[in-house]
Amino acid sequence: MLNEVAPSRSMREPRRRWFSDDDFDLVVWFSDSGSIAGFELCYDKSHAERALIWSSSGGYGHFRVDTGERTPLKNLTPILVADGALAKDRVIAGFLEVSKNLDPAIRSFVIARLQEYPSGRD
C-alpha cells in the first residue's frame, strides 16, 4: 500500500505530496488554488524502474530511470531517459491495488490520467 512520506517544504517548489511503497512512488504537485497541477508515478522500482509524468502544462512523458554507473568513480545520480511504450493495463492494475488508502480525489485523478494515456505511444 502507498503510504505518505513526511512532507519536506521548499520555498522554491510548489506544494506536493509524496506516497511510496516497495514498487511505486507517487509525487503529486498542487497549484496555488489546490488543484492537481501534475504528478510523477514511478513503478517497477525493484526491477527496471520507470516513471510516468503528467502535468497540466506539458502533458505526458514516459521514462526509464537510469541509476548511473555501478562504480565508485562515477556519479550515481539517477536521471530520466526516454523509454518505450507504457505497459498501461499492468500499471493501472498495480496502481489500483496499492492506492486503495489514498485520498479518493488524488486516486481517481491519477487513474483517469493513466486511462487517458494514449495507447501505443512511444
Concise summary:
Helix content is 20%, strand content 32%.
Average pLDDT confidence is 89
What's the shape? globular
Main pleated-sheet profile: 7 strands, antiparallel
Distance between the termini: 29 Å
Percent range of helical residues? 10-25%
Q: How would you describe what is shown here?
A:
Helices cover 20% and strands 32% of the residues. It contains two helices and seven strands; from the N terminus they run E-E-E-E-E-E-E-H-H. Strand 5 and strand 6 form a beta hairpin. The chain is globular and about 45 Å long. It has 122 residues and is α+β, with helices and mostly antiparallel strands. Helix 1 packs antiparallel against helix 2. The chain has helices at residues 88-98, 104-116; strands at 3-4, 16-20, 25-30, 36-43, 50-55, 59-66, 79-82. It has a seven-stranded antiparallel beta sheet with strand order 1-2-3-4-5-6-7, with helices on one face. The protein has one domain (14-68, 75-116).
Secondary structure elements and their pairing?
Elements: E1 3-4, E2 16-20, E3 25-30, E4 36-43, E5 50-55, E6 59-66, E7 79-82, H1 88-98, H2 104-116
Antiparallel strand pairs: 1-2, 2-3, 3-4, 4-5, 5-6, 6-7
Helix pairs in contact: 1-2
